[in-house]
Amino acid sequence: MNSKALTYLSFLVLVVGGGLLIGLVNLPDAWYRSLAKPAFNPPDWVFGPVWTLLYAMIAVAGARTFMNFRRTAAMRLWWAALALNFAWSPLFFGLREPALALIVVIGLVVSVLLYILSSWKQDGPSALLFAPYLAWTSFAAVLNGAIVALN
Question: Which UniProt keywords apply (predicted)?
């Protein structure tokens, strides 16, 4: 296997595998089901497929950035977004701290937006791969905020 393929594979394992593992360890439980949720809250089954697809896109963007622009602000923002993303589920579901999770998801939205802006000129395809991520995390922030407000 060549180094390019190994890089893509490594990022896929890290991001998709890490995301799925964190999701499995922090599944919605009776506490979550008892929370008041807004009318626009999607059914639970939507989150798994959406996040799996997003994680694959995040991994591809990360691998591209790592291979071509490793020592840039874009790469640092990619890592920041991943760290914030991976922190959200343990805060919200594990520690049952929706308000703290809201702060994290707002930071995530900002880091995703800054990644798009910083990578746009150097690697347009990677920036575009983050566009659905920005849309979904923005929706997640609104949803998280509504849950905090309702509870």
Answer: Membrane, Transmembrane, Transmembrane helix
